[in-house]
Amino acid sequence: MRECTTQMDAARKGIITKELKIVAEKEHMQEEELRKLVAEGKAVICANKNHTCLNPEGVGSMLRTKINVNLGVSRDVKDYNVEMEKVMSAVNMGAEAIMDLSSHGDTRPFRQKLVQECPVMIGTVPVYDSVIHYQRDLDTLSAKDFVEVVRMHAQDGVDFVTLHCGITRKTIEQIRKHKRKMNIVSRGGSLVFAWMSMTGEENPFYEYFDEILDICEEYDVTISLGDACRPGCLADATDVCQIEELVRLGELTKRAWDHNVQVMVEGPGHVPLNQVAANMEVQKSICMGAPFYVLGPLVTDIAPGYDHITAAIGGAVAAMSGAAFLCYVTPAEHLALPNLEDVRQGIVASKIAAHAADIAKGIPGARDIDDKMADARRALDWEAQFACAIDPERARAIRDDRLPEDDHSDTCSMCGKFCAVRSMNKALAGEHIDIL
């Protein structure tokens, strides 16, 4: 038997890889059950052969909902040391993936450092790096230049790459005809659109998709099929451009699976709350159950400064309805490159959404920590409550800053001796309940 090329190839041959074994244990799932999901493409284990320090995770709607954290420098904010601090903070807070979206400077050493030191999945968007790597303007790059950047990222050990393969020359006419409010808001999608418009050529990621599949199969890189036409405002949600691209992504998913290449499919975007579940169902049908990776969705357009909340609302509904992977959104969304505090708030909001969805889906063990929190609250055991909290540091800081004047081991400064939990504990124990 020839050597297995990818996690999907191994799963299809009935082989349990060491990565699959680790993921099955984390998910409280039988190895054979997970193997079948990976073989069918309904779950992926993003694990580049060159990412040797990886602690693998699985992504799929039957598994725990995972979250991704976008980081990276820009021309205006370009301190790689600060970005690395954000990376390690994100890992410590439980993020399962980091996407390096750097668009300035010498990006390769930072990307290689991530792969060498970071134990979570690493993703990139190679089209961002193309102009930076070659130090040439967009319209001077050839289709082969873009493909070679994909190869470089694969060699560097990146576990998944976002490729905007679904827009074609036909999309140019659709965008002009349908008059979207926000046109294309995907940064990578806009670059591909611009390149096609200036050169008159076909999307290189679509035209040379088979060559890209060969690269991804060699290094076991998962393709995240980017949604260039994701809606950037509620008015554009679930429109012709979005759905037509999704149909093409379904076709490309099948082609990737024929190469034993794992696939995730990216999704919206800005979507009214009442359309979120329907978007998930459409994707599951068109893309045959491939894991869905969503940005938010953001359920209103009017909350700059609070879009981590907007996205968490949509993310919880999306994950409950079948999304497998949530891309976090920070308070800085639409405004600025996020700082360390923005990253923290974005992660917490996204983790809350993911956890709420896992409880709703009945993921094994998801509610265990909530039941422990209920026990700790009933016992007024503050240390146990902090241990169960999704952000223990913040919970402790708020309580310590506003302790009640007396008997603070028992109550908080909201209710004091009017505390319902205290009163019930004493009443059921037959004790006197002192209020004044």
Q: In short, what is this structure?
A:
By secondary structure, the chain is α/β, with parallel strands linked by helices.
Tally of helical segments = 19
CATH topology (fold) name of the largest domain: TIM Barrel
Give the strand order, joined by hyphens, for the main sheet. 3-4-5-6-7-8-9-10
Helix content: 40-55%
Which residues form runs of ≥5 with pLDDT under 50?
Answer: none
What is the overall pLDDT average? 95
Main sheet makeup: 8 strands, parallel, barrel
* Portion in beta strands: 5-15%
Number of strands: 10
List keywords for this structure.
436 residues; alpha/beta; TIM Barrel; eight-stranded parallel barrel; two-stranded antiparallel ribbon; 19 helices; 10 strands
